[in-house]
Fold this protein.
Amino acid sequence: MTGAFLLLACSRSVLPADQGYFIAPTVVGNSQAIQLETPTAPPPSPTPECENNLVFLRDVTVPDGTRFAPGAPVEKSWELRNDGTCAWIQGYSVELQAGSIGLGAVPRHPLPTAQPGESVVLTIQFTAPSEPGNYRSLWKAHDFAGNPFGVGFYVDITVSE
């Protein structure tokens, strides 16, 4: 009888022809489903940096070549437009770039705050030099990091007795 037992142990299972030798898995006890991670979208690309730009519109006071007596006060105003995409914020400035040592003015002044497309008036106090002659002082805008931008603008006066 031992011979029959061995014969049964070595025989193939009888499965339907369409299942081959595959046996489907079964869930046991308190098994839990495996959570697969869903790929996340890459972070959005950083917002492009804005661009600073300044356009000179007009001299509000003291047209070029205006005559002043030696030592006279000169109050110069310009109309400027923010033609960039950055707002002019606290920390933006205008700085002396070249010319007649600032004509007695402080070499750095705050640039009025302005949104893109907005126009502002900037006023700086100068003093006419004591010697007769022609004097010009060039100024340029700078962002809060000290980078110059836009066109330069100037005061141009004549000092005579």
